[in-house]
Structure formats: C-alpha cells, structure tokens
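re the bet — no i am not wrong, look at it urself. input seq straight from the record:
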Amino acid sequence: MTDKNGQTKKNVGAPSGLTPFHLEANRSTRGLSLFLSGIIGISDFSDDYIRLMSHGGRILVNGKRLFINVYENNSVEIVGRVEEIVFSYGKN
C-alpha cells in the first residue's frame, strides 16, 4: 500500500503468535452477551464476577447471574447482567 506521497506504508499488526484483544457486546434475553477474543485463560469465576487473562493484562467482568457460555480458541462468551468491565494492564 502506498500513501499520497508515493511512499510504501507498512501494516502494523499484532506480533506473530499473539492474538489481538477484541470485545463485542450484544443485548440478549438474559441481559448482555459479551464475546471476548485474545483470552489466554480464566483465573476465577462465580455468578457475580469472571476474571480473565489476556496477553496485555487482566479483565474483570462484574455483574449478576454471569456464566461462561463458550470458551475455545482464545475466545470467551459471557452471558448475564454485566454491570462493570475493569481492565488491568501488566503481567498476569
């Protein structure tokens, strides 16, 4: 790809081997459906909170009647009444 000055641009993406973090939220009959990709693990969970780990840090999802619907291929779907999402950067 070239810019308007005719110079070639480099595409900057995630380093190979790392899955970039992505979050989608949709309304559902049970509250909210969160789909998160780039997740490397689940450190703790209950129906009031779910703690996730990513390459960039930790994600805490707080709410009511939360449950993990899908966890595969570095992706997680969380369904329930989501009240708060907290990001913590740094090492897990």
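see?? The radius of gyration is 17 Å. told u. also The beta strands are 22-28, 31-37, 39-45, 49-54, 57-72, 75-89. so pay up
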